[in-house]
Records
---
Amino acid sequence: MSASDCIFCAIVAGLAPAARVFDDDDCLAFMDIQPLARGHVLVIPKRHAENLFDLEADEAAAVARTAKQLAHALRTVLEPEGLRLFQLNGAAAGQTVFHYHMHLLPRNADEPDVNPAALHGRKPADRAELEELAGRIRTALDSHLVS
Ligand code: 5GP
Ligand code: ZN
């Protein structure tokens, strides 16, 4: 998959919709369209890099910094008992979108467990609901509650 037919590059370029929660020179973060749980967020580098092996070290650092900020925002907004971070490299690992992305997945102990590598076949979430949640996460990021 090249940048020209990549859905995440289209989101970066503003050519495809997404409920965005964070945007800077290096990274973009938005709500996963088929969330495994409420508050499922993806962080991507803006440059098209297929997987961890193609990522520059400074891009990996930028994604990690953004994930850290978002972790605090998700905790402020949703107060989950736990938070999973994971990312998949290569089809054999379960990767389905070949533009590097980090998943942030809030989790409570009493919820059904999910296999992060089995991300297929879920239903798209309600767009208005994703936008409402994205707005709350953006507010938490902007507030001084997030360090
Ligand atoms: P992977 O299996 O590659 O780690 O996960 C890809 C993720 O991207 C999945 O969780 C899927 O729901 C999400 N996704 C796929 N296409 C889109 C899209 O067009 N918009 C958004 N927001 N998420 C997407
Ligand atoms: Zn891309």
---
Amino acid sequence: MEKTYKIGDRTFVLDQTKAEEAFSAKKIINGKDTMFFNILPLKYQWAYDLYKTMKNNHWEPEDIPMQKDVELWRSSDLSDVERWIIKMAIGYFSAAEGIVGDNIQHVTRDNVTAPELKLVLGRHAHEENIHADSLVYMISSLGINPHECEAMFEDIPTIERKTNFVVSNSRALRRDMDLDPTADKQAFAKNIFLFGQCMEGTQFYGLFGMVLSLYRQNKFPGIGQMFRYTLRDESNHIEVFRNLFMDLIEENEDVWTPEFREELIDLMREAVDLEKEFIRDCLPVNALGLSADEFCQYIDYIADRRLEGVGLSPLNQGVENPFPWLAEMMDIKKEQNFFEGRVTEYQKASALGSVDDDEL
Ligand code: FE
Ligand code: MN
């Protein structure tokens, strides 16, 4: 018997028996492992939808002018703290983006089995490449010594601690994981939580807040613009990993023990402590309009949203968001004329697919 399946506004006629068989063989982990990219029939709709959204957000660093940033970088109007924040941002993210991309390719994408999950994770990894490339563009524009940036990862203890926190977990999970025992499934689930909710979801936000605070004061318009695009991308990455995590525990109920939940909450507590230490390193004294206490409060606020997002109890009660404007920074409409043409081009290139997102 034949049956019609829909993805967006496209329809496909599939043999019903074969389609049902393929559908039930699709799992987050331990599903049918195939080298054929069988998107149909689609099981994880969110993965395909996020893939489309992410693709429509495509951006290229070189489209963003850096002239004003360069002028400010060279001028004496810039305070030491502001210069330090930009250096910390470029130094930290230069390696952090690579660590995330590496974990996606060698741990996450390697262990999931449904093709639509591999599809969205491929795009996710590519966006980490764009972010890494944007940092190279900032380094070259400002004339920062690349070795100095690399050295920050070893010389600044608060950066080193944030890195070890995620890398130690990722390294242990490479290749040939047996995902049958509960403990191994938990290790994989923990990795997804750690990277999606603790690192990209929380530990990126101290610097997002600081750089975009400067941007809000009309400082570093080019770097700020790139961070806005990056923030928008990261919000999709957090969603990819959140959905992955939720479906993984739904399909593997043995994972979700009270002890495991406690372990994840402790992990987030550690992530928050490391991020607060790091914020105080970035902002040793309060600069104009920037207070370390407010950034720390923001981390408490955002960490609790991440925990709740995956069904865990928050660490605090009733922390208010000190930066409501930060969420609006992701809302990139057509305010940049120089970019408008390019966005339209990218959109056109994807017109073959069903674009149901007319946001841009
Ligand atoms: Fe990124
Ligand atoms: Mn990311």
